[in-house]
């Protein structure tokens, strides 16, 4: 069960070029303050990136309206500059990374299943797409 103001969990996958891993990590330590502000202004929160073997990058964030968040960032000059610089880091990606990342489908969430087992409504949804 979800509410009308459900928080959407969004998870996505990209692959960072192995020869650029160190530079990619450095570019995120830290991210430009103005880009951080744009991410927050878009309505994305609890945003994390996780790096695995071979450059496998998993991203996660929560939002109340992912379409609005994506539209906001698509129209942001700061995000356009950031994404233009980040595009070269990824394998097999066409377009801006924040608009073209491979979405992952959520198949399990502990909070949702515990709430369902108790017969209570949840405040989150089950599926996500990303950037």
TrEMBL record:
EC numbers, comma separated:
5.1.3.-
Q: Which GO terms describe its molecular function?
A: racemase and epimerase activity, acting on carbohydrates and derivatives
Signal sequence, start to end:
none
Matching Pfam families, A to Z? rhaM
Enzyme class name:
isomerase
Which BP terms does GO give this entry? rhamnose catabolic process
Q: Which Gene3D superfamilies match?
A: 3.30.70.100
Keywords linked to the UniProt accession: Isomerase
Listed name of the protein: L-rhamnose mutarotase
Lineage of the source organism? Bacteria, Bacillati, Actinomycetota, Actinomycetes, Micrococcales
The encoding gene is rhaM
């Amino acid at each position: 069960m979800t509410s009308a103001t459900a928080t959407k969990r969004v998870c996505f996958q990209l692959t960072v070029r192995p020869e650029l891993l160190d530079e990619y990590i450095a570019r995120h330590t830290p991210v430009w303050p103005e880009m951080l502000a744009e991410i927050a202004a878009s309505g994305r929160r609890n945003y994390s990136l996780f790096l695995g073997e071979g450059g496998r990058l998993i991203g996660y964030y929560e939002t109340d309206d992912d379409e609005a968040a994506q539209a906001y960032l698509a129209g942001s000059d700061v995000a356009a500059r950031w994404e233009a610089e980040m595009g070269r880091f990824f394998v097999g990606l066409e377009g801006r990374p924040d608009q073209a990342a491979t979405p992952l489908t959520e198949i399990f969430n502990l909070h949702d299943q515990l709430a369902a087992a108790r017969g209570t409504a949840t405040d989150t949804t089950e599926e996500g797409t990303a950037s």
